[in-house]
Amino acid sequence: MDFEEYDTEWIDLILSARKMGLTMDDIRAFLRSPFQTTQKSQNSTENDPCMSP
Predict the structure, then answer these.
(1) Three-state secondary structure call for residue 49
(2) DSSP 3-23
(3) How far apart are CA 32 and CA 49, in angstroms?
(4) What percent of the chain has pLDDT over 90?
């Protein structure tokens, strides 16, 4: 398969996700089940002082 056969939008999305710090496993997990939250994202606001009551 030549590079030209890949969808450039998907390549851009993957590269953007990688630049944001997501691992390939993070990306794969999201693509398999985009509506499930991960433990990482559920705890992301716990230590955020802006999100404290």
Answers:
(1) helix
(2) GGGS-HHHHHHHHHHHHTT--
(3) 32
(4) 34
* 3-class secondary structure, 45: coil
The average pLDDT across 18-26 equals 94
Q: How many helices (DSSP H) and strands (DSSP E) are in the chain?
A: 3, 0
Q: Shortest CA distance to 16 belongs to which of 2, 38, 8?
A: 8
Residue 45: how many CA atoms within 13 Å on its side-chain side? 5
Question: Residue 17: what pLDDT?
Answer: 94
More confident residue, 9 or 43: 9
Tell me which amino acid residue 6 is: Y
